[in-house]
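Today's session is about reading a structure prediction critically. Students often jump straight to the picture, but the first step is always the sequence itself: look for stretches that repeat, for charged clusters, for runs of hydrophobic residues. Only then move on to the predicted structure, which in these notes is written as discrete structure tokens rather than atom positions. Here is the chain we will use throughout the hour.
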Amino acid sequence: MEIVNDSREIVPAVVRLLPAVTVLGSVSSSSDELSLADELRAVAPQCGIAVIGTDPGRGTMEKVPSNGFFSVVPDNAGLTHLVRAIKGLVADCTSIDQTVIRQPSPARQSLSDREREVLRLTADGAPVREIAAELFLSPGTVRNLTSSAIKKLGGRNRFDAACIASKRGWL
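Below is the predicted structure for this chain, in token form.
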């Protein structure tokens, strides 16, 4: 792994190292990100590209290349979202989560930290009693937090709510 801070050094570093995935950091203009991504695709077509943008928005969505492996991750997304995007690129999968990119959802702001913790542990497959023990809560409190999160996210059950939150990069 090599960190490059100057955009002029990115292409030579990719040619030298031949990484499976290149992560381009926050750039204020999506056109800068995409032109650099096009340049990288030309010299290293096998390299997946993840672009972290301050506001990728619709302009980015319309200009995303159709060939090659490309992921767009908003910089307000959680680390889990970035890790999943990188794993997807390694597995040859394009990933652009439009629900996160276009606008922050009110649900993200309304989920409490505890609700996110409960959903994160639910996504990992933990039963209610195990979640309660890990978070030092009663099983009833865990059920109440889960119920609240299900309502906010529009899930069918706790696993569906955890899946929705995870797909949006909120866990």
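Discussion point for the tutorial: The first strand starts at residue 21 and ends at 24.
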